[in-house]
Amino acid sequence: MRSEESSGALGVLGPRRTQTGSDMEGQNCNNICSRTHKPATDSKKKKKKKEIPERVTLKKEIGLLSACTIIIGNIIGSGIFISPKGVLEHSGSVGLALIVWTLGGCVAALGSMCYAELGVTIPKSGGDYSYVTEIFGGLTGFLLLWSAVLIMYPTTLAVIALTFSSYVLQPVFQNCAPPYMATRLLSATCLLLLTWVNCSSVRMATRIQDVFTVGKLMALCLIIVVGLVQIFNGNYEALTTKVAFSMDRTPSVGQIALAFLQASFAFSGWNFLNYVTEEVVDPRRNLPRAIYISIPLVTFVYTLTNIAYFSSMSPEELLSSNAVAVTFGEKLLGAFAIIMPISVALSTFGGINGYLFTSSRLCFSGAREGHLPSLLAMIHYKKCTPIPALLVCCAATIVILCIGETHNLINYVSFINYLSYGVTIAGLLWYRWKKPNLYRPIKVNLLVPVSYLMFWALLLGFSLYSEPVVCGVGLVIMLTGVPVYFLGVHWKEKPKCIDSFIARATSVGQKLCFVVFPQIDPIEIASPSEWTDRSSGRKSFSGR
Predict the structure, then answer these.
(1) How does DSSP classify residue 515?
(2) Residue 28 lies in a domain
(3) Conformation bin of residue 518: beta by default, left when phi > 0, alpha when psi is -120 to 50
(4) pLDDT value at 535 more than 60
(5) What is the rounded CA–CA span in Å between residue 415 and residue 463?
(6) Is residue 249 domain-resident?
């Protein structure tokens, strides 16, 4: 939001504030970063200079490897260990289920190619929200942000955390379900631990993501290797053409659409690198590379994993299992069956870390645009991490954990999530028409976004037909942001008492969290319209 859209120094939701070096020097004495120096020895001065970065800004510490692990780590959560049951149930046959898994990866690849173009054309953190805000304006972007912060990411984090705690506690409570309170406490403990890690260091958070992503791939490789051994030993009856496509009933188009939705849940997270674009080293090069490496790799691994499942389990066994990977381990790994629940727990632990890392950057981006309180746009003056945004994400997730009813919420989340994908990729087409000469380092073929939108519209249509109440509630949740936007963001002349309260609250938050507005060069926050068109004689942003 532009500065003239707010009254006073701080609006109800906070104005857009991004500071240059001179701005930082001029902050008032209440700011924790405005330090008064006492006489110090040369050694103390040298130590202090080493501790405090020359420029307080988000650090570019995500290289190509970490970028790949963010995508792979966020995609591979609990879905591939659980979703095969839902895909098989709705598709009706092993062969059709494998086709659904492969096509699900292809659809994710189409979407990720579109996001690669958007990510290098509008190189801002925040993903869908930043692109929609830039293309369609503040209200549309705010509605995506509102639904994401209010329900989408807290609910997804809560579900992943509960899955983690259930699998960790499974060996302790072998003959019964883990106690309700125990799962909640362990989930909250895990969230608090990973929030502390993300507040402490970007490097530490990305290293955790790297390690746990490798662990996930190793667990899936174990399943694949065991499955291939079974195939080489002649146990592949369920994969023969005659058996694979035999079905008791012919699935309807609606059932196939629901099978795709189940597979898509396992592929969700393919767009998460776009939420941290500004922390990627050379994003115009590494963002598309990471996408093009990660999505095919995950599709390949997912397909082979399902082949391994079907080589060792009959369709009846798979449908009767609530945790396919655990049943697979119990059947084939013998004494080493404990590896599977541990693998699922580690996979979900890494998923929580990835969701915290990326969702906090969404809050950060929203606050920077003036759509959330300005405190959330601040980072620690030494560690350069968005501590207030991370704390808000953690607190919102713990609230969802306390509510307890996550099953219905996750249905609303799925609808809102798919709606945001379609709106964003439709924005790509609109941006092509609106600014045809804008320099685009990557420009995908027009068939890519059109094909994705056709598939998206089909799935969305069947969702509206089969679950009208769920979709209706999802839309209502999103539209509750309209009055919030007009009261908190669009309303310019706000009472002074509100401005004073927000200013005091922001000052207290700064002192508690030791945070300041990041210093960003003006060229880094230029809007796409200022980067100049390729047809103009001026130098474009990408040609620096």
Answers:
(1) E
(2) no
(3) beta
(4) no
(5) 8
(6) yes
Contact 303, 103 (CB under 8 A): no
pLDDT tens digit sequence for 339-367: 888 888 888 898 899 889 888 989 999 99
pLDDT in tens, 252-299: 777 787 788 778 777 888 888 888 888 888 888 898 899 889 999 998
Check: CB of residue 172 under 8 Å from CB of residue 178: yes
Which DSSP state fits 379?
A: E
How many domains would you assign to the chain? Answer: 1
Residue 318: the pLDDT is 79
Give the CATH number, domain containing residue 190: 1.20.1740.10
The structure's pTM equals 0.79
Contact 128, 153 (CB under 8 A): no
**Residue 448 scores a pLDDT above 90:** yes
Alpha-carbon torsion angle 452, 458, 464, 470, nearest 10: -40
Longest Cα–Cα distance in the chain: 84
Q: Which two tokens stand for residue 135?
A: 């293309």
- Measure the CA–CA gap between 222 and 347, rounded to whole angstroms: 14
Token pair 């080489």 is at which residue?
A: 232
What whole-number distance in Å separates Cα of residue 189 and Cα of residue 181?
12
Q: Flag whether 535 is in a domain.
A: no
**How far apart (Å, rounded) are the C-alpha atoms in residues 299 and 312?**
20
Q: Are strands 515-516 and 379-380 parallel, antiparallel or unpaired?
A: antiparallel
Tell me, what's the pLDDT at 532?
A: 46
How far is it, in rounded angstroms, from Cα 444 to Cα 447? 8
Phi first, then psi: give them for residue 465, nearest 5 degrees: -75, -45
Helices marked H in 233-338 = 241-244, 253-267, 283-312, 315-319, 324-332
**Is the distance from CB of 502 to CB of 20 less than 8 angstroms?**
no
Reduced to 3 states (helix: H, G, I; strand: E, B; else coil), residue 380 is: strand
Q: How many CB atoms lie within 10 A of CB 505?
A: 13
Helix (H, G, I), strand (E, B) or coil at 19: strand
Q: Chain-wide mean pLDDT for the chain? A: 79
Residue 7 lies in a domain: no
Residue 393 CA, chain-centre distance (Å), reads 12
Helices (H), 138-268: 138-147, 153-169, 180-200, 202-232, 241-244, 253-267
Range of the domain at 200: 64-519
What would the pLDDT profile of 232-244 be if each residue is shown by its tens digit? 888 777 777 777 7
